[in-house]
Design goal:
Blueprint: H1 8-14, H2 16-29, H3 36-49, E1 53-57, H4 60-70, E2 78-82, H5 87-94, E3 99-103, E4 124-130, H6 139-149, E5 152-156, E6 164-165, E7 168-169, E8 176-180, E9 194-198, H7 201-210, E10 215-217, E11 220-221, H8 232-243, H9 245-262, E12 284-287, H10 292-301, H11 331-339, E13 340-343, H12 351-362
Parallel strand pairs: 2-3, 2-4, 4-5, 5-8
Antiparallel strand pairs: 1-9, 6-7, 8-9, 10-11, 12-13
Helix pairs in contact: 2-8, 3-8, 4-5
Length: 368
């Protein structure tokens, strides 16, 4: 048996006729940039998330760096971010000249809110709350800290499409919620795409102007902007995906529950979900304190694909060598990088495939 870590073709096959019908409709419309599909998707996504505004952009990274830019955060400012985040999260900060300040993750693989205040300095201007693997950070504590210290809050919801903290949807707590619609995401496009959500009328309008060369009216440029427009084809296809997002999330929860119930190997730690959170299971990430790479190789030999999210913490990457950080500065994030392993998780995965994965893992023993 050959099982991929993610099989996008399975999800496509579930509603292929709808995607193809929508693609033909957009192609035949003759309008491909900032048209009716984008406007409709923005309204529908905002309603789904529970935000006042949605602004479609070209990618999740664009959503991040533009958010910090329009919030006025730049050179000389510091932004707090979890030390085990994907490096794109950190790039959204540093692309504006601001400095990322790392904080260790908690037992749920997210930013440890109890460690944030110790990292705040007079230069701190914002917190980037990255909701990893489909589970929200502790937004109760994060928002309390932000209000106490007058900090902006940006939520990175790239991996959290439709999950909640204490019943409130991820992306609706802070000043801006940033979403990636990269194909592997819960509501994935068929190429690069992203958006922001916000309840701030003025900020939403700034995003709409900035994404289109800083122009509100053609050839009248209010600011030096960029080209970051969600195109009509991706917007149309995302509208189809959105109709089925709750269905996709529910299926992933069923897959995760089977893993939770039947994975019994004492050498692995199953993912933990906070009592105030739910998860959309963007990834099913186990911890393997001893022999993670051995397990990955063992599964590969049996035709089971896995992924490591993420093998190099941002503070140890070559891109951020200029920060002067070293191994040992964030031992929890570094340990997580050495022990996390994402198991196969995708819509359309069969129980037979999943039992094959479970049986293989339960039979594994690390070697000395």
């Amino acid at each position: 048996m050959n099982i991929m870590p993610n099989d996008l073709g399975r999800q496509y096959g579930l509603h292929a006729a709808e995607y193809e019908e929508k693609a033909i409709q957009v192609l035949r419309s003759g309008w491909y940039v900032l048209g009716k599909e984008v406007a409709a998707f923005e309204q529908e996504w905002a309603a789904y998330i529970g935000a006042k505004h949605c602004v479609g952009l070209a990618s999740g990274l664009d959503a991040l760096w533009i958010s910090f830019r329009l919030l006025g955060i730049g050179a000389g400012d510091e932004v707090i971010v979890c030390a085990n985040a994907y490096i794109a999260c950190v790039m959204g900060i540093s692309m504006n000249g601001a400095t990322p300040v790392f904080v260790e993750p908690d037992e749920y693989d997210n930013l440890d809110a109890d460690k944030i205040e110790a990292a705040i300095t007079p230069k701190t201007k914002a917190i980037l709350a990255v909701h990893l693997y489909g589970q929200a950070c502790d937004m109760t504590k994060i928002m309390q800290i932000a209000r106490k210290h007058n900090l902006k809050v940006v939520e990175d919801c790239a991996q959290s499409h439709g999950n909640h903290w204490n019943g409130k949807t991820a992306g609706t707590f802070g000043d801006v919620g940033c979403f990636s619609f990269y194909p592997t995401k819960g509501c994935g496009a068929f190429g690069d795409a992203g958006c922001i959500v916000t309840d701030n009328d003025e900020l939403a309008q700034m995003f709409r102007v900035f994404r289109n060369y800083g122009s509100e009216k053609r050839y009248h440029n209010k600011m030096v902007g960029t080209n970051s427009r969600l195109d009509e084809l991706q917007a149309g296809l995302l509208r189809v995906k959105l109709k089925h997002l709750d269905e996709f999330n529910a299926e992933r929860c069923v897959i995760a529950e089977l893993y939770n119930e039947e994975l019994k190997n004492p050498h692995i730690r199953l993912p933990k979900i906070h009592k105030e959170a739910d998860s959309t299971w963007h990834q099913y990430v186990i911890h393997v304190p001893k022999g993670r790479d051995q397990l990955a190789d063992y599964l590969k030999e049996r035709g089971i694909g896995t992924i490591i999210h993420y093998p190099i913490p941002p503070h140890l990457s070559e891109a951020y060598a200029y920060l002067g950080l070293k191994r040992g500065d964030f031992p929890i994030a570094e340990r997580f990088a050495d022990e996390v392993l994402s198991l196969p998780m995708y819509n359309g995965m069969t129980e037979e495939e999943q039992h094959y994965v479970i049986d293989a893992i339960n039979e594994w023993e690390p070697t000395t």
